[in-house]
Structure formats: structure tokens, C-alpha cells
TrEMBL record:
Statement: the UniProt record of this protein carries the keyword Lipid biosynthesis: no
Family: Belongs to the CFA/CMAS family.
Molecular function terms from GO: methyltransferase activity
Keyword entries, A-Z: Lipid metabolism, Methyltransferase, S-adenosyl-L-methionine, Transferase
Name assigned to this protein: Class I SAM-dependent methyltransferase
Organism name: Nonomuraea antimicrobica
Keyword Iron-sulfur part of the UniProt annotation: no
Listed GO biological process terms: methylation
Residues covered by the Methyltransferase type domain: 93-194
Length: 255
């Protein structure tokens, strides 16, 4: 069983094994304290994290520290979704689209106007516009919209075939995930699905600073059930070179 990353023993063991990571972690710790003091809630906090990270490097801000890795992570998400049902005619909502690491491939593949990306960070959405220019995707008319919550009130009923959120709930407390589950069903067409990744722990649920959140699968499955979703654990995703796990939600027949 994995030991909680928030435990002091884990942190000390990790520091001894990875001395070069001590300084960057201390910097994160100081930044965490500063943002906690100066932001009112989690979304404002994480928006500040993204502002600071995007100013340094937009690709690093979404978790890829080399361009090669950015391309590979985007490709991995895209290939998986195409192998698991994404068709060019689908209408897709990407929650936490970042600077379109996978989004640029989705936009190129989907019919014009069928991609809708939302994010809490205006800074990363400006970087996403740069990605659209770099990949010559303006003619596909992708929508990119900043949001302050996941109530999705500005989106129409039963509109999307596919909802996708990669590496977003790994940065979200449970109330943010619950807000999403409570509202996302309304914008999904009958038969639509919602794929998301999460940092899975088999031990105690925990968080590192306010940036990284670790959940047990059964917590998210039970929460999804409460909002009328069936959840499938995507076993074949586990074989890919990625640390997070993936769940697919579909609306229960009775919902
Ligand atoms: C690690 S990045 C991943 C970006 C993109 N999904 C990808 O795979 O490249 C996480 C993104 O989710 C966004 N995000 C975090 N919490 C969010 C929330 N509650 N609602 C919408 N976006 C959120 C962040 O601003 C950031 O752009």
C-alpha cells in the first residue's frame, strides 16, 4: 500500500532520496503560503498558481517539462479517446483544457465548431490561442471560455457527446469535483460519456499543498453514483505511461 505523500515520514524519505527536489519544493511551499493568504477560495488559489506557472512556461504549467513530453501527452490522450469512441462528428467539452496539449489534436479531428474548451485560468487560455495559431486551427472555430466554477450554466442542455478532463481533478478538492458531477449531466446528450483522470491512492486520501489531491477510486465512484452516473474504471489506461487513473461516467439508465 502506498504511504500518504502528506505524511512527514514520506516527505523526509523522499527528500533524502531526491536531494535536488528539496529547493523547488521549498519554493512551492512558500508560494503556497502566499497564495493561501491572498486568495479567497480554491479556484482563485489555483488560478494564481496557473498565472505564475504560465508566465514561466505554458507547457510546464500543464505539467510537461519538455516540448516532446507535451506532444506525447497530448497524443496519448487523443489516441485513447479515438480508440474509445470519439468520432469527428462528436461535440466535445474539454474541462480544464489548458494550452490545448491534447486539444489541438481534438480540434483538428473534430468537425468545425465541435470543440469547446473551458478553464479557470485566463492566462493558460491566452496560451491556448497561441497553440491554435501555431497549428493553423483557426478555421475549425474552437470555443475557448474562462470559467469561475463548474456549474456550466452558460452551456445548453443535452449538447455534448463527450466530456473530457485530463489532470484536472488531480488538482481539485472534492467540493469542486462534486460541483462538476452535479451539473455536467445536464449538458451531456443521452448516451454521452465523461472521461476524467485522477491521482489514485489505495491508502488514505490526502493532498500535497493545495495543488495535488489523491483520491480512492471508490470515493469518486460513490460521488458519481449520487449524481446519477455509472462509473467504469478504464483498466487499459493503466497500461499507458501515465501516473493517473481514468474513470468513464455515463448516465444511469434510470437517471
Ligand atoms: C495539469 S493542467 C492539464 C491541462 C489539459 N487538460 C492537458 O492535459 O494538457 C490542469 C488544467 O486544469 C485547469 N483547472 C484546474 N481546476 C479547474 C477547474 N476547477 N475548472 C476548470 N479548469 C480547471 C487548470 O487551469 C489547468 O489549465
Amino acid at each position: 500500500m502506498k504511504r500518504s505523500r502528506s505524511s512527514l515520514v514520506h516527505q523526509l524519505t523522499y527528500a533524502v532520496k531526491n536531494p535536488r527536489k528539496i529547493l523547488p519544493h521549498l519554493r512551492r511551499l512558500v508560494r503556497d503560503m502566499w497564495f493561501r493568504l491572498h486568495t479567497r477560495d480554491h479556484v482563485a488559489y489555483y488560478r494564481a498558481v496557473m498565472r505564475s506557472d504560465t508566465a514561466r512556461d505554458p507547457e510546464g504549467a500543464v505539467g510537461s517539462h519538455t516540448h516532446r513530453r507535451w506532444l506525447a501527452l497530448g497524443r496519448m490522450q487523443f489516441d485513447y479517446l479515438v480508440e474509445h469512441g470519439l468520432k469527428p462528428e462528436c461535440r466535445m467539452l474539454e474541462i480544464g483544457c489548458g494550452n490545448l496539449r491534447a486539444g489541438h489534436l481534438f480540434i483538428g479531428y473534430l468537425h468545425t465548431g465541435n470543440y469547446y474548451g473551458i478553464d479557470i485560468s485566463p492566462d493558460i487560455l491566452v496560451a491556448a490561442q497561441d497553440t491554435i495559431v501555431t497549428y493553423g486551427l483557426a478555421d475549425k472555430v474552437p470555443y475557448l471560455t474562462p470559467v469561475r466554477d463548474l456549474r456550466l450554466g452558460f452551456l445548453p442542455d443535452a449538447h455534448f457527446d463527450v466530456v473530457h478532463a485530463h489532470s484536472v481533478f488531480s488538482h481539485s478538492p472534492l467540493d469542486v469535483i462534486e460541483e462538476c458531477f452535479a451539473h455536467v449531466g445536464r449538458v451531456m446528450k443521452p448516451g454521452a460519456w465523461f472521461d476524467f483522470t485522477f491521482d489514485r491512492t489505495e491508502g488514505k486520501e490526502h493532498q500535497v499543498l493545495r495543488e495535488d489531491f489523491y483520491y480512492r477510486t471508490e470515493t469518486l465512484v460513490a460521488l458519481a453514483d449520487r449524481y446519477g452516473f455509472d462509473a467504469a474504471f478504464m483498466d487499459d489506461w493503466e497500461r499507458l505511461p501515465h501516473k493517473q487513473s481514468k474513470l468513464r461516467l455515463t448516465k444511469c439508465a434510470s437517471a
